[in-house]
Amino acid sequence: NEIGIRLRKWDNSTSSFIEFNERVRQVNNLTGGRDVAIFNFSFNVNLDQNDYVYFQVRNNNGNNDLTLELNSDYTIEER
């Protein structure tokens, strides 16, 4: 199966979403009941007051449910 993940930003000044390029990975079929796809990517996003970002996950061609795990690292810096 193939999974896609992308970052979306709510731009409050334009009242619209900005979508960053989707990254796609194959699911690694491991022994046991836990199959995973690992994503490593970096985005530079400027956030103004009342803007926010979140990840969106898509099952591109499978029938199984997906869970995006929260064990990720974010780096946020003041500009």
Short description:
This protein is an all-beta fold and 79 residues long.
Based on the model shown, name its key terms.
79 residues, mainly beta, 4-stranded antiparallel β-sheet, 4 strands
Outline the structure in words.
With 79 residues, this protein is mostly beta strands. Helices cover 0% and strands 33% of the residues. It has strands at residues 2-11, 16-19, 23-26, 52-59. Strands 1, 2, 3 and 4 form a four-stranded antiparallel β-sheet that branches. Strand 1 (2-11) and strand 2 form a beta hairpin. The radius of gyration is 15 Å and the shape is elongated. 1% of the residues are buried. The mean pLDDT is 84.
The poorly predicted ranges are none
Helices and strands, in N-to-C order? Answer: EEEE
What is the assembly state of the chains in this entry? single chain
| Main sheet: strands, sense, barrel | 4 strands, antiparallel
Helix content: under 10%
Structure classification: mainly beta
Number of strands: 4
- Counting DSSP H or I runs of 4 or more residues, the number of helices is 0
- β-strand percent reads 25-35%
Write the layout of secondary structure elements.
Blueprint: E1 2-11, E2 16-19, E3 23-26, E4 52-59
Antiparallel strand pairs: 1-2, 1-3, 1-4
